[in-house]
Design goal:
The structure is a homodimer.
Chain A lengths: L1 H7 L5 H8 L3 H13 L3 E3 L5 E3 L1 H8 L3 H20 L2 E8 L2 E8 L10 E3 L4 H8 L3 H10 L13 H14 L2 E4 L6 E9 L5 E10 L12 H16 L4
Antiparallel strand pairs in A: 1-2, 3-4, 3-8, 4-5, 6-7, 7-8
Helix pairs in contact in A: 2-3, 5-9, 6-8
Chain A binds a DNA duplex through α3.
Chain lengths: 236, 236
DNA sequence: TTCTATTTCTCATATTGTGAGAAGTAAACC
DNA sequence: GGTTTACTTCTCACAATATGAGAAATAGAA
């Protein structure tokens, strides 16, 4: 009942809801009264209702990254198998990446681990999509430690890299965080288009071998679409 | 039960929830199983749960301005009486202000009405807190019609006004939208600090008389605090 | 004022929920 | 590997709540 009213968005009155839910009008009224009393719905006149303050409070307590992780743990093993890669989901917490899902093989990263953001594909995706002010502050904060000969550490080079990431729609890490490791990552967006997480496909490569990372892109974007659809009901 | 788990944020396991809710452990397990099956909760190991994808979908369907309006209709009549003013709540929709609540007297605005944003206190608050790119686009879009001799219409003057609004934390409209009308407005922020609406106190004044608008500020900020607390569980 | 639509109430019946405690499963410890 | 502890699921007798139909009350439109 609550779901039907939230989905309806306050457009229908009680008699219409009765029709669409195939429930007697008296029962609809009884349910609406209970939900109103509970603060989960608010009347807006004409027998119509929208979410109430208590519903908003519930929404405010949702930990979106944890929900995404739960969905990822369900869906990503299949994609990892199809990609023949390790697939990971990460979020930006402060200036670090938190690795929340990791399936399809072994890497040095562990679920729950936090690593610096500037040197990983996931991190570069998340940093690239920060608001300008926050990104500028991150770049000013330095220093950025050179982990391999490929690590980008110079702030202006990182800024250029972020521009490229936004343009391309994905980031690559070719041995920036670790010799012999290549990753590609794409952003996960919420219903408003804000980037809330990133998804990556990683694989070991021969050191200093470029590897065709972009070959993983179609399946990775498919995975991203399925996750966004499942979490937010829409997809970029 | 669902509310308790969302509030808990996945910290407690079933036996702890049983203790805090004063319910047998078997009943807690039964409820958790039902909520999991419904997709409203997701297990995160150790008998702990967080919001599930269906809960996130509910959250995505909440019309925040409508919820705020519902709360405003309840709380604002009292503030309007104490202020001896008309109190209004508005949101920015595209480049227009939608007036959603209006209590405490008569003004030319009507609930549901949309007006240009640049020339009202509510509008200036909302425009002032737009992301830089969006604000720049708004100022470029012009033209801004001169409604009274006091209306700010020059884009650079508007930009300076927005800087002042952000610095002061409120906006004033002294006969910018209508001769003889003065308003002061403050931003309404969500739990993340994003400005989602604005609240104003308005009163008729003698034409070309400044009026001491700031006298209304303490009560208006109190109203804003109560609304934010009720809607988002926290206050700026 | 009348008519129509909406909302609330009553009642007989149906359905679901509860707590206790047993049983099954999992994890920790020796 | 076996034992102990903790967690999870199941069963059952009993309790509580929900339901749909239709009547009654209220509100709005003509």
């Amino acid at each position: 009942m609550l779901e039907a009213v939230l989905t309806d968005g306050g457009r229908s009155r009680a008699s219409s809801l009765a029709g669409s839910l195939n429930v007697p009008v008296a029962t609809i009224h009884r349910h609406l009264a209970t939900l109103r009393d509970a603060g989960l719905l608010t009347p807006v006149g004409g027998g119509r209702h929208v979410a109430g303050p208590r519903m908003l409070a519930f929404a405010g307590r949702i930990n979106v990254p944890e929900v995404l992780s739960g969905i990822g743990r369900q869906l990503l093993p299949d994609f990892a198998r199809r990609l023949g890669c390790v697939v990971q989901l990460g979020t930006l917490d402060g200036d670090m990446v938190t690795y929340r899902v990791k399936v399809g093989g072994d890497l040095f990263t562990k679920v729950g681990m936090q690593l610096e953001a500037y040197c990983s594909a996931i991190g570069k995706v998340l940093l690239a999509h920060l608001p300008d002010g926050e990104q500028a502050r991150y770049l000013e904060a330095g220093p950025f430690v050179q982990l391999t000969t490929h690590t980008i550490t110079e702030p202006r080079a990182l800024a250029r890299e972020f521009v490229a990431v936004r343009r391309l729609g994905y980031a690559c890490d070719r041995e920036e965080i670790s010799e012999g490791l290549a990753c590609i990552a794409v952003p996960l967006r919420d219903a408003k288009g804000a980037v809330v997480a990133a998804l990556s496909a990683s694989r070991a490569i021969e050191p200093s071998h470029s590897g065709d990372l972009e070959a993983a892109l179609p399946l990775l974007e498919e995975a991203r679409g399925v996750l966004e659809q499942r979490a937010f009901g829409c997809s970029t």
